[in-house]
């Protein structure tokens, strides 16, 4: 690969890292060609972009970012690396990895590291926690539900109390007659 080609790849990676605040770096070494194709197909179906890139190019692209990604240098950017870009859905790649493992019966791909809104997670032990993160839409839904709950309680209380009050008044008026 020439310097010009490397510069183009680094530029593309910088654009991807800037546009996607959530990305995962995985190791899919040891997978067969069929398994790799299956992983790529699953990524495509889920709207996740998967690219295999040299570690040095990833490192140079991350150096150009505003955030500090130096913890990735020592532990994450070693060996075979593939990058999963997920856009706004931070937990989609983690769920995809777990789903792929279940289907294939293997332990690959391995999570080497992830960046979720510039927070770094290094190591396979973070996969379960990352898969349980709630998406922005889920969090907004929960907030709306919480905000609606007191209003529903007041309305149901008024409706219930109003019915009781009407019943009491009716009983009292019948007693007077």
UniProtKB/TrEMBL annotation:
Forms part of the ribosomal stalk, playing a central role in the interaction of the ribosome with GTP-bound translation factors. This is Large ribosomal subunit protein uL10. GO terms for molecular function: large ribosomal subunit rRNA binding. NCBIfam families: PRK00099.1-1 (NF000955). Keywords: Ribonucleoprotein, Ribosomal protein, RNA-binding, rRNA-binding. Belongs to the universal ribosomal protein uL10 family. GO terms for cellular component: ribonucleoprotein complex; ribosome. It comes from Roseivirga spongicola. CDD domains: Ribosomal_L10.
């Amino acid at each position: 690969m020439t310097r010009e080609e490397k510069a183009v790849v680094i530029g593309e990676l910088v654009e991807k890292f800037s546009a996607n605040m959530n990305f995962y770096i995985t190791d899919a070494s040891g997978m067969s060609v069929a398994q790799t194709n299956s992983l790529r197909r699953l990524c495509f179906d889920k709207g996740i972009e998967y690219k295999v890139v040299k570690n040095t190019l990833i490192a140079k692209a991350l150096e150009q970012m505003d955030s500090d990604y130096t913890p990735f240098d020592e532990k994450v950017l070693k060996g075979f690396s593939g990058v999963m870009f997920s856009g706004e859905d931070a937990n989609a790649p983690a769920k995809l990895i777990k789903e792929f493992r279940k289907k294939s019966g293997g332990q690959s791909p391995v999570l080497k590291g992830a960046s979720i809104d510039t927070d770094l997670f290094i190591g396979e032990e973070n996969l379960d926690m990352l898969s349980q993160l709630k998406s922005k839409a889920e969090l907004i839904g929960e907030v709306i539900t919480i905000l609606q709950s007191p209003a529903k309680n007041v309305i149901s209380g008024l409706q219930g109390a109003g019915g009781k009050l009407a019943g009491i008044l009716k009983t009292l008026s019948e007693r007077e007659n």
